[in-house]
Design a protein that fits this description.
By secondary structure, the protein is mainly alpha-helical. Helices cover 52% and strands 8% of the residues. The strands form 8 sheets. It has a 3-stranded antiparallel beta sheet.
């Protein structure tokens, strides 16, 4: 019995001993991570084995992976005792030689983290792909929508073109105005007004004087005249002819470069019947005229002040600073003559020097040379021009060193010494501000603007005492500060001062309201002192000497209609009845005076405008100074009225002026000023204006640059050429006659730039348009 009992106990112990590893394996604590739990159980199993148990293990094949993994875990555990580390090494030795050891816990954790990151990256990539797919789908949808809209617009345009073609077959083509036919001009203006009235409706005159009435309706007519609504209006029902006038903004300006606010200048709607092909031909003819004059200067007077067009000699009439070159730069750029522009640029960079320039007119040097350099810089952004402008500006500063701070006009440039009289005229010291302010703005040096603006500030402060209704006397002593004489004029010696009051205000982005107030006050005074309703009801601008209004008008005064038009189109009315009346009145004056100025050209058979005229009993001009010295003032006003009034006759007038110049002032290489001769009895007036649709072989030859061989050349009995071609012919006259024929936006935009008195465009000051200076 005892033997059996002992045997049972022995077997029970043996079974217990054999089951112990299994119990330990399955009773281990559970870990957070499954891999950690398994690893922990393996380690506990190994710890439970005695040291010699490892030696006795047969290590069957199905257990080798477990043994190897357990041994690796043991060897990897830094906190184990020596005995367990030795056991681990023995377990490792049990693995076959070709068996790859399983990774440790640390390696497993690393692998798990890498897999986790990879999964997250895959998810992000899938999300990004889904987002890109959505964007691509949206883009495709947008493109399909845009394509559909473009197709619809093309269909509408085709329908409109078909309607216009049908209408053109029924209508007679627009005829060009004869230079000496005021009846035709009046008829055309009446037709234009009728079409605008048909498009925009009638105006009840009684409403204008009643501020309680609807201001928008009361001033619809001025809004049509020069876009007083700020350049935009609601669509209205119009005739087929006036479809382009649905929006009160010139079609030629709707795509202009963005500059200042659209209401900065209110452009007028242009005639939709404009023959763009003919306008292009005319523009190219003016460009050819500029190339002709420039090539003559380049060949015969390169680097000199001027060319004498008859003798083909060079002359330094302005101190020897290449005046014609500097004065022509902006015209070359505007007309796209960039090769000629760059050739002049290189000469200026390498050769222009002021160190030997002697006596100069500060006024002429400022408006021609300094402004020419500044405008070339503003257009091209080439610093060569700014560097030369700074050099010249510094040399001009001593002119302001008078007792009053008003500039002396005579100066020896290289020494800074005053020369000539201490007296100056209104136009001389009142035409420095635009150029000197720009120079300060471009360089960051305030000295130039401070010197020039002091003059305007002083005049503003003393206006009530020294001006008559805002109009200043012509003569001033820069040392004594005394105004002399009793002479008032917007022609010679006074003209550009009034122009600069307005344009300096515009240059400053309309912020200096006191300048605009000075200008508006001067208009009131000029109406009272200088405007005359002469014979035949003709309105003209006289001079006033000692209270007496002259019976003649100077060509120089013909800049004023354009200035009035610009004043009307830039006045900030903001719905104010009084201001809207003022703007409308300015434009009415501009139109009437503009017509008077153009009629200068009818005073002679050539169609050239004399330097001054009187008016006969019918109100028709008669030459009192029978010279045409290539002046720009009439062309200048035609340009402004073309853009701001919109009547197509102004463009026609511009074409007529150039044809007269090209016919009678042209020499074998350039152009010359002329003296107008008495018209022979019975002489049939030469037709200089281009006809509508005229694409004759003669015209085509002219556009190609070939010499004309027509039978109607200039009659030598009508003009006598004089050996002079002023630089302002290239800077102003040809530029304005070119720009008036533009039908698409070009280099000049009155919402971004202001012309100085020599027609050099300079940028208006604003953060958006001047940020890169």
């Amino acid at each position: 019995m005892k033997k059996r009992l002992g045997l049972v106990m022995y077997l029970a112990l043996a079974l217990l001993f054999a089951a112990l590893p299994w119990l330990l394996w399955h009773k281990l604590p559970v870990h957070d991570h499954p891999a950690d739990a398994i690893e922990g159980r393996k380690n506990m199993l190994l710890f439970a084995l005695p040291d010699n148990a490892v030696d006795d293990l047969a290590a069957p094949t199905n257990l080798r992976g477990t043994v190897t993994a357990t041994a690796a875990s043991v060897a990897d555990h830094e906190s184990m005792g020596p005995a367990h580390q030795a056991a681990g090494e023995k377990l490792q030795n049990l693995a076959p030689a070709n068996q790859v050891p399983l990774p440790s816990t640390k390696e497993k954790r690393t692998a798990m983290e890498e897999r986790k990151i990879a999964v997250e990256e895959d998810e992000e990539e899938e999300a990004l792909e889904r987002e890109l797919d959505q964007e691509e789908d949206a883009l495709l949808e947008m493109e399909e929508k845009q394509q559909k809209e473009e197709e619809e617009e093309e269909e509408e345009e085709e329908e409109e073109e078909e309607e216009e073609e049908e209408e053109e077959e029924e209508e007679e083509p627009l005829e060009y105005l004869e230079q000496d036919d005021p009846d035709l001009a009046a008829a055309m203006e009446s037709e234009f007004e009728e079409e605008r009235q048909a498009a925009f409706g009638d105006i009840d005159d009684d409403m204008v004087d009643d501020p309680e009435e609807d201001k928008g309706a009361a001033y619809a007519k001025p809004a049509v005249a020069f876009g007083a609504s700020g350049g935009k209006a609601a669509s209205v029902k119009v005739s087929k002819k006036m479809k382009a006038a649905k929006v009160l903004v010139s079609p030629a300006r709707t795509t202009r470069k963005k500059g200042l606010d659209d209401t900065f200048v209110r452009f007028a709607p242009q005639d939709p019947r404009t023959d763009k092909a003919l306008a292009t031909i005319r523009r190219e003819r003016v460009k050819m005229g500029m190339k002709r004059a420039w090539d003559a200067y380049r060949a015969n007077a390169w680097g000199k002040d001027t060319i004498l067009p008859l003798s083909k000699a060079a002359a330094d009439r302005w101190g020897g600073m290449a005046m014609t070159m500097l004065d022509s730069l902006s015209t070359l750029w505007v007309m796209g003559l960039k090769d000629d522009f760059m050739e002049a640029r290189d000469w200026i960079a390498e050769n222009l020097s002021f160190k030997d320039v002697g006596h100069i007119s500060v006024f002429e040097t400022n408006i021609r040379a300094l402004a020419g350099l500044l405008s070339a810089y503003d257009l091209s952004r080439d610093k060569v021009f700014l560097d030369r402008a700074v050099e010249l500006g510094d040399l001009l500063l001593p002119a302001f060193d008078s007792k009053t701070g008003f500039p002396i006009n005579g100066l020896t440039l290289y020494s800074g010494q005053h020369s000539g009289s201490r007296s100056a005229c209104l136009a001389e010291f009142g035409t420095m501000q635009i150029e000197f302010r720009y120079l300060s703005h471009a360089t960051g040096n305030p000295i130039y603007a401070e010197k020039a603006m002091y003059v305007f500030e002083k005049m503003h402060d003393e206006s009530a005492k020294v001006a008559k209704h805002g109009v200043f006397k012509l003569d001033y002593n820069a040392d004594s500060g005394v105004w002399g004489g009793d002479h008032y004029s917007v022609a010679a010696r006074g003209d550009s001062f009034y122009e600069y009051l307005l344009k300096t205000w515009l240059q400053g982005n309309k912020k200096e309201t006191w300048l605009r107030e000075m200008f508006d006050e001067s208009v009131d005074g000029i109406e009272e002192l200088l405007l005359v309703r002469g014979p035949g009801g003709r309105l003209y601008i006289a001079n006033n000497d000692n209270g007496h209004q002259s019976d003649n008008m100077e060509h120089l005064a013909c800049f004023y209609p354009g200035t009035l038009a610009l004043a009307a189109a830039t006045l900030e009315t903001k719905g104010d009845v009084t201001l809207e009346k003022r703007a409308a009145h300015y434009m009415d004056l501009a139109r009437e005076l503009g017509e008077t100025c153009y009629q200068f050209t009818s005073s002679h058979a050539t169609g050239l405008a004399p330097d001054s005229v009187t008016f006969d009993q019918k109100g028709m001009p008669q030459a009192s100074d029978p010279r045409y010295i290539l002046r720009p003032e009439i062309a200048e006003s035609m340009y402004y009225l073309h853009l701001l009034d919109g009547n197509p006759k102004w463009r026609e007038y511009g074409a007529n002026i150039f044809e007269a110049i090209d016919t009678y002032c042209r020499t074998d290489e350039a152009y010359a000023q002329v003296r107008l001769m008495a018209t022979p009895p019975g002489y049939k007036k030469h037709k200089t204006a281009l006809r509508n649709g005229d694409t004759s072989s003669t015209m085509e030859a002219a556009v190609k640059g070939e010499e004309e061989t027509t039978k109607t050349g200039p009659d030598v009995k009508l003009v006598s050429h004089e050996d002079d071609m002023e630089s302002f012919f290239l800077a102003e006259t040809l530029k304005y006659l070119y720009l008036i024929q533009e039908t698409e936006p070009g280099e000049v935009d009155l919402s971004r730039q202001v012309f100085n008195t020599e027609a050099h465009p300079l940028r208006i000051f604003s953060d958006r348009s001047f940020s890169d200076v």
